[in-house]
Amino acid sequence: ALAVALAHDAELILLDEPTSGLDPVFRRELLDRLQGLIRDGRTSVLFSTHITSDLERVADYITCLRDGELIFSASREDVFDRWALVKGGPKLADGPAARLFRAVQKGPYGVTALTADREEAARELAGLDAVVEPLRLDDLVFFLAREARDGQEVSRD
């Protein structure tokens, strides 16, 4: 079915979970083919997926929906430039920088928090016992999903 869709030289291709259930080799080949289609600028591909590594590999823009509501929509570069993980000791969640945290995961050795303002977090936490790290889309989806389920604080139970 995918070969038929690609053979018609469509301007827009809509795919729902296109790589779900595929072995790693064919999955990569499919993603490479999709990248080739969009490279010329005549074809757009919109696909829905839970496999965030596929998005990291091929997406120009990422849109996150939760319960039918738009959480964010931005270029892949903007997502990775803006969002970050902050890691530090247990007091980090209650300190002045906590206002920058979208969701917090407390563990036995400290806190991991999601921030939507990487630069401000880096300025605010400079010199403190905390680090601001890049995130993967898996991290972002995890924190945003747990935020919706549990509210602001996420525990590692």
Q: If you had to describe this structure to a student in words, what would you say it looks like?
A:
The protein is built from six helices and nine strands. By secondary structure, the chain is α/β, with parallel strands linked by helices. It has a five-stranded mixed beta sheet, sandwiched between helices. Strands 1-2 form a two-stranded parallel ribbon. It has a two-stranded antiparallel sheet with strand order 3-4. The radius of gyration is 19 Å and the shape is elongated.
Q: What's the count of strands?
A: 9
Helical residue percent?
A: 25-40%
Poorly predicted sequence stretches spanning 5 or more consecutive residues: 152-157
N-to-C series of helices and strands: HEHEHEEHEEEHEHE
Q: How many helical elements? A: 6
Apparent shape: elongated
| Main sheet summary | 5 strands, mixed
Q: In what order do the strands lie side by side in the largest sheet?
A: 8-5-7-6-9
Task: Provide tags for this entry.
about 160 residues; alpha/beta
Brief summary:
By secondary structure, the protein is of the alpha/beta class.
Give me the secondary-structure topology.
Blueprint: H1 2-7, E1 12-16, H2 24-39, E2 44-48, H3 52-58, E3 61-66, E4 69-75, H4 76-82, E5 84-88, E6 101-107, E7 110-115, H5 118-125, E8 130-133, H6 137-150, E9 153-155
Parallel strand pairs: 1-2, 6-9
Antiparallel strand pairs: 3-4, 5-7, 5-8, 6-7
